[in-house]
Amino acid sequence: MILIYSNPESRQLWSRLPAEQRREGLEAYTALDEALAATGELIVAEALADPATGRRVRVEAGRTTATDGPFAEAKELMAGFYLVECDGIDRALEIAARIPEAAMGLVEVRPVMALSGFEA
Prior knowledge:
Elements: E1 2-6, H1 8-16, H2 19-39, E2 42-47, E3 55-60, E4 63-68, E5 77-84, H3 89-96, E6 107-109
Antiparallel strand pairs: 1-5, 1-6, 2-5, 3-4
């Protein structure tokens, strides 16, 4: 799983970029999507909506409640992800390096763990 983060600084930087540079950034994602689809490594890639549109769910004593954001103050928020199936961590790091946010240190690679990996 390749996780893409955002923070106030990166959001501000994006909003100040000229339209041409924003277009180039989006084209980098399109090119990466197409390349990973062509190699069969892409399972899914998605951008996430503004965290303020999210809801936090809690089940307590059999009762479900959902609360609106904003949630606890965070320096970085999840902005999107790529789920890929590739030959190992080195390949995943190569892919992650192509994500524009990697230039700001906002990309994380983490293996997905099957539920069978948890002890009962």
